[in-house]
Amino acid sequence: MTPDELEELIEDGIEDADATVDLPRAHHDRNHQDAHFAAVVVSPAFEGEGLVQQHQMVYDAVGEAMTDSVHALEIETYTPEEYEAQEAAEE
């Protein structure tokens, strides 16, 4: 699985989501069973949800890929307002 394919799964599975996925750990074979990914997901669907629920929404969107294509997934979730505030704080 590629980062782009994982982004598409997340964006298709969470309403109005914008996902950015990368490989924080280098792999010789991008389809390797031990694939580690990092995802930043921004969606208004996260509003009013706790962090555990937000992460569960991402895992639900990834679905079966978590058992056969993705070994580990680091997740950061934000509402659009939280993401804008974080971006402004980093400037």
TrEMBL record:
UniProt-recorded name of the protein: Stress-induced morphogen
SUPFAM superfamilies cross-referenced by the UniProt entry: BolA-like
UniProt family annotation: Belongs to the BolA/IbaG family.
InterPro entries per UniProt: BolA, BolA-like_sf, BolA/IbaG_stress_morph_reg
Pfam family, one: BolA
Gene3D superfamilies linked to this entry: BolA-like
